[in-house]
Amino acid sequence: MKNIDITNISKNIGIRDTNTHKGDYGKVLLVAGSIGMAGAAVLAGRGAYSSGAGLVTCEVPEQIFPILQISLPEAICIPRKAGKVEYNQYDAIILGPGLGISRESSTIVDEILKSYTGSLVIDADGLNCIGHYDLYQSLLDTRSQLVLTPHPGEAKRLLGLIEIEDRETVAVSLSKTFHATAVLKGAGTIIAFVQSDGEIAVLKNTTGNPGMATAGSGDVLAGIIGAFLAEGLAPKDAASSGVYIHGAAGDLAAMELGETSVMASDICRHIPYAIKNITGK
To answer: Is the pTM of this model over 0.90?
Structure first.
């Protein structure tokens, strides 16, 4: 297992050309949020925009449109309705933050798994819907380029484990089982992905601190990774860059506020500075 290399991260986060427009930086669809969990969609959307996404569209219940349009005015809101969205018009989809595990949510998850062929981040309730409604075959059969971002509890449910004894082994199992880039969250987040020779490579993140153990932190990470995917990075590069910058933003927030007081919105606020520290611009 190797540590994430900051040299490679700096290569992944490019400097923008002068003659560009928002369409050059990726269209992200955020399938997230529910009544009582609108904040998850807001945080993921802020994570995506702060990481350079050109355009973020939020597919959410119409009841929470006002929250999204006030808290994230840069985003477009569309109603969540099965069979009504052309998913393949988007460069990347973030599926799951605050989605809930209703039957309607499971239908959307299954529809995206079966129809979408682009880069797909599955987080939180996206993963929970797969387990709760037994959508494993759809997950295995999907033509999407998958990035799975479970915390340890979600990883255990996905793999049918009782306990996690070795995090690296679990990350490798996730990657191998679901043909995905796996991001096993926690202290020293571990990324596992399939290399061109078929072998599984494993990376460990070196940024971050205990202050990031707070509600919404994972939603922000999903947004960052989704933005990098939409901008054209390969799943392994989007995942490694995403977790590194997420942790670096958390470290900057902790330096300013102290670990005890860091909130997910503070992590979002420090993403631009974390990126600027890498790019110099």
So the answer is: yes
